[in-house]
């Protein structure tokens, strides 16, 4: 990193244009947050509307100076995701952005051909979906059902790709950037042979992405119907979890009343003791598949160039 003072790093000079200011014009950012969410972002994320674009410019300058070969999108809205995910700490936001790109480079089995049409079989299986209603805190609930996966049909990396694309779609919303998400994982019917596909290598990669390589706030992970073997699965996962994230795991077993203390029945499907009707995966599948062109366009801009130096890839993996 450069020898600039903290003052210089946190407040870009107004005297001369930065390298990033000489780049082509970018889409103008328009805030879509409600007044209540603006207040929430200020209180929880240290986001000040009057300084927002200054903060984005500071992060943009850091990218251009310290990681000029990163090949990242530098639009205001895109960089804001990373600032919000790290409470407007410039250095942490920059590291998250670099990690985000490095994850794509170091796990090609997941990140090649990264578009919704490529994971259509996973979506049709119902392995991952998003409930139609947000919870009282304004958070989407991502529902994951491993029992819907048949390992002989496709490898576990396809499931991970489907989860990743789901998160990419959700994080396009500024409301989700501020409120975060909740995960509901139903382990009913998961056998030891199926669980064996989620070994230490995969566990470390997935946890690394969710904790340090993606700009989303995971506020709770609710596990339901976990079999006895889940203790073994969790034993594999836990060493890679930060304490803050580990404390957000809730194991409910078959106790729906326990689940309802975290996720109200009014937004849950009947399968989980809720009153929101049968679980319907079609609406989310249609929404994600209809976004094909957005993903193709966005990800074509987010590929690391082949001549990236080792300095550009100093991250957690």
Give a concise summary.
By secondary structure, the protein is an alpha/beta fold. It has helices spanning about 5-10, 35-45, 50-65, 75-85, 90-105, 110, 120-125, 155-170, 175-180, 190-195, 200-210, 230-235, 245, 255-260, 280-290, 290-300, and strands at about 130, 140-145, 180-185, 220-225, 250. The chain has a 5-stranded mixed sheet with strand order 1-2-3-4-5, with helices on both faces.
Description:
This protein is α/β, with parallel strands linked by helices and 317 residues long. Helix content is 45%, strand content 8%. It has 16 helices and five strands. The protein has helices at 6-10, 35-45, 52-66, 76-85, 90-106, 108-111, 120-125, 156-170, 174-179, 192-195, 200-212, 230-237, 243-246, 256-262, 282-289, 292-300, and strands at 128-130, 140-144, 181-186, 218-224, 249-251. It has a five-stranded mixed β-sheet, with helices on both faces. Helix 3 packs across helix 5 (90-106) and helix 4 packs across helix 5 (90-106). The chain is globular, with a radius of gyration of 20 Å. The relative contact order is 0.13.
């Amino acid at each position: 990193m450069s020898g600039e003072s903290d003052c210089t790093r946190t407040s870009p000079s107004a005297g001369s244009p930065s390298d990033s200011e000489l780049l082509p014009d970018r889409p103008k950012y328009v805030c879509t947050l409600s007044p209540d969410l603006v207040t929430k972002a200020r209180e929880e994320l240290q986001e000040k509307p009057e300084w927002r674009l200054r903060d984005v410019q500071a992060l943009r300058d850091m990218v251009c100076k310290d990681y000029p070969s990163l090949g990242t999108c530098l639009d205001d809205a895109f960089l804001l995701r990373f600032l919000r995910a790290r409470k407007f700490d410039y250095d942490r936001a920059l590291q998250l952005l670099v990690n985000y790109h490095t994850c794509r480079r170091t796990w090609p089995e997941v990140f090649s051909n990264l578009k919704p049409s490529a994971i259509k079989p996973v979506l049709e299986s119902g392995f991952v979906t998003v409930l139609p209603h947000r919870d009282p805190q304004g958070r989407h609930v991502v529902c994951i059902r491993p029992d819907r996966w048949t390992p002989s049909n496709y490898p576990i990396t396809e499931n991970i790709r489907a989860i990743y694309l789901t998160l990419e779609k959700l994080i396009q919303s500024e409301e989700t950037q501020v409120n975060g998400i909740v995960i509901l994982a139903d382990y009913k019917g998961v056998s030891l042979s199926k669980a064996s596909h989620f070994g230490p290598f995969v566990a470390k990669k997935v946890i690394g992405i969710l904790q340090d390589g993606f700009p989303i706030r995971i506020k709770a992970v609710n596990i339901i119907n976990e079999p006895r073997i889940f203790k073994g699965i969790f034993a594999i996962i836990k060493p890679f979890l930060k304490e803050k994230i580990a404390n957000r795991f809730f194991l409910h077993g078959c106790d729906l009343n326990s689940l309802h203390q975290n996720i109200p029945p009014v937004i849950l499907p009947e399968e989980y003791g809720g009153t929101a009707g049968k679980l319907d995966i079609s609406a989310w599948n249609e929404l994600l598949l209809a976004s094909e062109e957005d993903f193709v366009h966005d990800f074509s801009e987010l590929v690391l160039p082949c001549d990236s130096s080792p300095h550009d890839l100093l991250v957690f993996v």
